[in-house]
Design brief:
By secondary structure, this protein is α+β, with helices and mostly antiparallel strands. It contains two helices and two strands; from the N terminus they run E-E-H-H. The chain has helices at 51-55, 65-77, and strands at residues 20-26, 42-47. Strands 1-2 form a two-stranded antiparallel sheet. The chain is elongated and about 50 Å long.
C-alpha cells in the first residue's frame, strides 16, 4: 500500500498523470556564512499541475565559482 501524496502547492493528488516534477528546499541565509543544502528548514513537492506557476517566478541561473569571484571584484572596484 502506497502513501497518499499530494502537491504541496495546490493539494492535488500525485498520480501517474500528475507526477512530482520539482522538489524545493528552503535554506536560511546568514551574512558571512555559506548557505548549505544540508541545513534546509522546509521542503515542498511540486506536481505537474503547478509546473507553470513555479516557472513564472524569477529564477536566477546558477553561476560558477569563477563567475561569482568576478562579480565580487567588480562590485568592490565600483
Amino acid at each position: 500500500m502506497s502513501a497518499h501524496r499530494e502537491c504541496d502547492s495546490c493539494g492535488r493528488k500525485i498520480t501517474d498523470d500528475n507526477p512530482i516534477v520539482m522538489k524545493l528546499f528552503m535554506v536560511p541565509v546568514k551574512p558571512g556564512k555559506p548557505a548549505k543544502h544540508s541545513s534546509y528548514t522546509h521542503h515542498m513537492d511540486v506536481g505537474h499541475c503547478c509546473f507553470n506557476k513555479v516557472h513564472d517566478w524569477k529564477w536566477q541561473p546558477r553561476k560558477s565559482r569563477a563567475e561569482m569571484g568576478d562579480a565580487k571584484r567588480l562590485r568592490k572596484a565600483s
